[in-house]
Amino acid sequence: MLRRTLRKIGSESRNSCSRSRSLVAAPLRANRWMTNSEAPSNGSIGAGPRRAPLSIDTINKRVINSEYAVRGEIVQLAQKIARDLEEGKASYPFDKVVWCNIGNPQILGQKPITYFRQVLALCECPQLLSHPHIREVFPEDVIARAELLVKAIPGGLGAYSDSAGALIIRQLVAKSIAKRDGYPADAENIYMTDGASPAVHYMMDLLLREPNDSMMVPIPQYPLYSATLTLYGGRLVPYLLDEGAGWGLDVAHLRQQIATARASGLCVRAMVVINPGNPTGQCLSYQNMRDILGFCREEQLVLIADEVYQANIYVGNKEFFSFKKVACDMGLLEDVPLVSLHSISKGFVGECGRRGGYMEVTGFPSEIKDQILKLASINLCPNLSGQICCALMMNPPQVGEASYEQYRAEKSAILGSLKRRAELLVSALNRLDGVTCNAAEGALYAFPKVTLPETAVQAAKQLGKQPDWLYCKELLEATGIVVVPGSGFGQADGTFHFRTTFLPSEEDIGRVVQALGDFHSAFIQKYGGLQKKQPALATAANGDNEY
Amino acid sequence: MLRRTLRKIGSESRNSCSRSRSLVAAPLRANRWMTNSEAPSNGSIGAGPRRAPLSIDTINKRVINSEYAVRGEIVQLAQKIARDLEEGKASYPFDKVVWCNIGNPQILGQKPITYFRQVLALCECPQLLSHPHIREVFPEDVIARAELLVKAIPGGLGAYSDSAGALIIRQLVAKSIAKRDGYPADAENIYMTDGASPAVHYMMDLLLREPNDSMMVPIPQYPLYSATLTLYGGRLVPYLLDEGAGWGLDVAHLRQQIATARASGLCVRAMVVINPGNPTGQCLSYQNMRDILGFCREEQLVLIADEVYQANIYVGNKEFFSFKKVACDMGLLEDVPLVSLHSISKGFVGECGRRGGYMEVTGFPSEIKDQILKLASINLCPNLSGQICCALMMNPPQVGEASYEQYRAEKSAILGSLKRRAELLVSALNRLDGVTCNAAEGALYAFPKVTLPETAVQAAKQLGKQPDWLYCKELLEATGIVVVPGSGFGQADGTFHFRTTFLPSEEDIGRVVQALGDFHSAFIQKYGGLQKKQPALATAANGDNEY
C-alpha cells in the first residue's frame, strides 16, 4: 500500500511543481523532492556526493565563516582561565577574571529594578496574590499590576501567547512609544522578541535572497550584524563612522559606498544604524538622523534602527530621538520601511538573561508584515517573562504610586554610577601613552584607539592574528581583564582598538583601570616602545589591517 | 581621510579574498564586498537589479514558501472570530472559540506545577529569601532549592549565562538524563534552548549547505520540520508512517526512500524521528528504534530525535526509551551522530510560554560542537527562567521532601486527566461515520482519518484548497472548534485527517466532542453523504491529494 501510494505521488508530481506558491499555498507534497525542476541547472549543484557523513568539511560553510567576537576566542581563553582559577589548577598573576567583554551588568553586581522583580514574582506564582500576608511582602501597586497582567494574559507565563506577543503587552508597549515620541504607535506594528537578536535574524531572513544581496552596516559595528549577514548568505557594505568627528556620519560617504556596492553588482536592501552606538557610544545628531532617513528614502532601503541603548545617555548636550519620531517629523513614516529595535538587556534595567525586547515595524506593506508574523509563528512566541518585563520597563511606576520613589532612586543610582564609571574609564584611557578614546556619550562601552609598536604588529602577523587580538590576549594573561579586539567590530584600515565595558562595580573599576594602565605600559615597552612619529596608515601586504 | 582609507582597502583586497577561513579566521574585511570572487559565475546571479524596493516580490522566496499550519490560515480565521465575539461585532452559532489547534495546555485551564512556580518566584525576587515571613509562604525545600540556584547562577535570572546554558543547569540536566537512561551524560553535551524549536533551527543551519541537501522526515510530521527545511533551503525526503499498523515504521520503506532520494540527486544529511509522535501520538517499539539507529549508521545520517512528549505516555504496554539509551545499548553512541531534543512545553509541565528545553548532542566531532556553541553565542544565551524550569522538571521533588506529595498529586492528576480525555476523544471520533482514529498512545493529540464525500473534495478544489482544510473551516464556523487540517502535517495520498488536541478541560471536552459529532454528520449530509464503497485512492489530476 505504501509503495503504490508513492508511485502515485511520483506520477502526479510533474505538473504540480510549476504551480506558484501563494501565501497559504497548497501544502508540502511528497513528490517535490523527486524532481529537481527547482534546482538550478548549473552543473556544479546536483552533481555533489550523495553521502556526506558529518564532519567539519560537510557542514554549512556559512556557519563556519560566521564570527561573533563578543564571545570569540579571547573569551574562550578567559573561560578556561576562570575554570583553572576556580579549580586551583594553575596560577596567574591575578585572582579573578574581570569580564569587560560583554554588556552584562547584573553579573558584575548591578541590581535588578525591585519593582520589576516583584511584579514578575507574582506573575510567576499567582497563588501568592491570595495569600493573607501578601501585603506585608509586596507594595500595593505591585500587587495591582500583577493582578492586571495575570488577568489580561490568557494562561499567564505558562501559555504560548500570540506569536507577535500578548495583546495587552503590545498595547502597553505601543502606548509608551507614543508617549516617548509624541506620535501614535499601533500595537499591530509591535512584534515582541527574545531580546533584539531575533528581530535581526527575521530581517536577514526576509531581505537576503541571494549572495549579492547586502546591507549597509556601520564600521565599527556590533558583530551580530556581520555574523548574521554571513549566516544568511548576504554581503556587508560598510560605512565608516568618523572617529575624528565623534564617530559621526557623513552622508556623502554613504552615497559613495552604495554607489560602489552597486557598481560591484550588489543589491543593497537595508541600512543598519545603531543609535546610541555600539561599540562607539555616540548619539547621532538630529540632523544626521534626517540625512539618514532622506538617504534611505532616495535609495529605497529598509532602515534597521538598533536603539537598544536609548536609555543610556550620559551627556547633557545629547538627547535620544527615535528614528520613528524623526521619520514622523519629516512626514516620511509611510515612505521609509523602518524596523526599530529595543531590548530589556541594556539601559538601567539590564535584564539580559531574561531575553526580552520588541521591534516596531512601520512603512511595511501589510502582506510583508504577514510574512514576519509567519516567521514568528514558526517559533511559536517569545517568552512571556521577557514580554512582561519589557512592558514594565516601558510603563514604570508613576509619581504618586507606592513604588515610585524606590524606582526613581534605583534608576538614578544606576545611571549616575554608569556615567561616573564611563567618565573615569575614558579619562584614564586617554592618559595612557598612545591611546585616545572618544567620550562614551551613551551605551555601556569605551572603544579606545591604541597605537601599537610595529614590532607588536609583526608579532601578531607571525601568529596569523590581528594586532589588537594580541594586545587583548596579553592583557588577559597579565591581568585577567577580558576585552574584545577592535578587529571583531571593524575599524578603519591601519587602526587598532579594543572594546571594554565600564561595568565593573565602582569598587572594582579603579583597580581595573590601574591594572590596564600598568599592562599597557609594559606591553609598549615589551615591544620596543612607540616611535615618535607613526606612519599615517600601518599597512601589511596581505591586507591584514583593513578596517 | 575616509576616502583614502577606502581606496587603500580596495587596492589591498584582491589578494586576500582567496585566503581560507579558519575557525577563528581573520575578521571581516571591508573589501570583501567589493569583489565578487565569491559569487557564482552563473550569469543569472549578479545580473539582477541593483535596487529592490521592499515589496512582496522582493523578499526571500523561502520565507514565502514556508508554511506552519499549526498557526496557519484556519487559526487566523479563528482569531478574527474570537475578536468579533469579544467585541460583540458579529454573531456565531457558538459563544466561544475552542483552541484545539495547538498543544498549549495552560491556556485551557491546566494548572502549572506549584513547586516549579514557587522556586521560580524566589529566583525572580531573591530579596524574598531574607523576608522574615518567608517560611509562612513557601515550603522549606522550595526555599533551599531557590537558594542553591541563586547562589550557583552568576547574576541570576538577569544575566546572560554561558551560551550553552549555565553550568549548574546543564549539570542538573545531565544528571537526570543519566538517571533516566542508566548511562552517563556529560554537561558539555547539553545545550539549553528556548524550547525545542531553536535546536531544530541550529541543525538546519548546520547541515543544509545547498538546495540538494535534505532530511528524512516522518509523514505525518510536526510542521516545524517542513517549515524550517524550506526556510533553510533544503529538501524534505518523506517516509510514511503506516496508519494501518499503529503509525509504525518500516525500515524497508526507509531504504527505498533514501535510495530514490539519492537517485534524484539529493544528499540526505539527517533523519528526523518524533517519539512519541506528533501528530500521531505513537510510541516507537524498542525494535523499531534499533532499526532506525542501524539505518542511520549504515547510511551515515545524523539522527534528530524529537522527544518532547516523553512524559506523555498513556498506555500501559508502552514505555519511553530515549534514542540515547538505545544507542548506548547497541554500543553505537560514538557511531551515530545523535541530537536528542526535550522541552518544558509538554508532558504534564506544560510551560509553553516560558520557552525552555535542551538538546543533548552525542557522536559529534568536537569541532562541530564548537560551531554549535558559536551559533548559540550569536544569540547570547537561552532565557534563564526557561533554563531553571527545565532543570526543575528534570530534578523534581523527591520522596520525603516537603513538596513531594503535592508534586506527585498534581502530576498524577494531570496525567490521569490527559489519559481520560485522550480515550474519550478517540473513542468518540471512532464512533463517527467514516472516521477512524488510532489510539493516542502518547503526546497531546488525536489525528483522525476522515472519509469525505467526493462533492466536498470537489468543492475544496474549486476554492483552491485542500479538502481537509474545507472540513476544518466549516467546523470552525459551525462550532468555534479550531483544529488543524491533516494536509498541514502531511498524509498518505488520498487520505484526509485533522489534528485536534484533547486539551479542553474535562468539563468542556464532552461538549466539544458532541459539537464535533453534530458538525460531522451535518457536513457529510451537506455534501451528499458517504458512498457505500470508497475508491482506494481519491485522486485529483493535479496531485492535490498527495499525502
UniProtKB/TrEMBL annotation, chains A, B:
<dbReference type="InterPro" id="IPR045088">
    <property type="entry name" value="ALAT1/2-like"/>
</dbReference>
<dbReference type="Pfam" id="PF00155">
    <property type="entry name" value="Aminotran_1_2"/>
</dbReference>
<comment type="subunit">
    <text>Homodimer.</text>
</comment>
<dbReference type="InterPro" id="IPR004839">
    <property type="entry name" value="Aminotransferase_I/II_large"/>
</dbReference>
<keyword id="KW-0808">Transferase</keyword>
<comment type="pathway">
    <text>Photosynthesis; C4 acid pathway.</text>
</comment>
<keyword id="KW-0663">Pyridoxal phosphate</keyword>
<dbReference type="InterPro" id="IPR015421">
    <property type="entry name" value="PyrdxlP-dep_Trfase_major"/>
</dbReference>
<protein>
    <recommendedName>
        <fullName>Aminotransferase class I/classII large domain-containing protein</fullName>
    </recommendedName>
</protein>
<feature type="domain" description="Aminotransferase class I/classII large">
    <location>
        <begin position="149"/>
        <end position="516"/>
    </location>
</feature>
<dbReference type="InterPro" id="IPR015424">
    <property type="entry name" value="PyrdxlP-dep_Trfase"/>
</dbReference>
<comment type="similarity">
    <text>Belongs to the class-I pyridoxal-phosphate-dependent aminotransferase family. Alanine aminotransferase subfamily.</text>
</comment>
<dbReference type="InterPro" id="IPR015422">
    <property type="entry name" value="PyrdxlP-dep_Trfase_small"/>
</dbReference>
<keyword id="KW-0032">Aminotransferase</keyword>
